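Bumping with the actual sequence this time:
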Amino acid sequence: MADTELPSHAKITLLGVPIEIGAAQPGTLMGPAALRTAGIARVLEQLGHTVEDHGDMVRPAITVVDTPPANARYYDEVRAWVGALGKRAFSIACSGAIPIFMGGDHSLAMGSVNGVARYWQQEQKRPLFVLWLDAHADYNTPATTLTGNMHGMSAAFLCGEPGLDGLLGGGPRVSIAPDQLDLFGIRSIDPLEKNLVRDRRIAIADMRAIDEFGVGVLIRRVVERVRARNGVLHLSFDIDFLDPAIAPGVGTTVQGGATYREAHLIMELLHDSGLIRSADIVELNPFLDERGRTARVAVELIGSLFGLQITDRATPSNAVLPD
């Protein structure tokens, strides 16, 4: 069995993906800049990792499709972004670096995950599992969507669902099986989407399950399943997974999300697993944020994902320390 442990000093590549047309509300194109301003590279470097920032992808050239799918808004534009990103993701994975894709809306995962899945499943012969931290399932297709917004179709596309078959523009489409996807923290799902998720038997840990069992038990189940198949793990982190009280800077807030401490525990457990090989951070909308608060929380969580421990965090000067 191949080694699954990450080195304590990893090579990490940051890539900004300023796409916002997959969502209903503009502003996520500013997400990569906000994450940089909040210090994402500095935090990772302080943990001993080597960080290369490849900047932001430029807006790709748009090729118009004569008959785009019905109920897929801005299909041509999303198609251009996803095709270009899939190639970049594959290239970064081949370099041996851990890519962090800074969004941008969640439609970018159609390219990022496709690229890293191509590397792991075709080049390394190891299955790529995806942990989808999100308030929404994002498992709609053009046939089930209520809005036509393509950020809500990203998980379905990754699992090979029909309806967006030409989205990669002739590039290789490397899907994951439905049993390689975990939807975690879900608390908003459309009726037809719910039926599709049930039919595919996709693992869901909704907020009720989190309340009943706790994130520790549920994340360990994910880790055990990935390890049992000698897989690796991609984290697709939609910031609306968090409760709006701690992360207001998203366009699709849903009350009752994960707490600050629950989110850090998830990241710490994922770090301990040694399985993370790539990640998305999506749906950060600085236009809706409060003085950068959501961006700072997101960067702190990425720090936990890559080794920052609670004992490493600064203690307020007025705190009473135990003897």
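The tokens above came from a reply further down the thread. The chain is about 35% helix and 15% strand.
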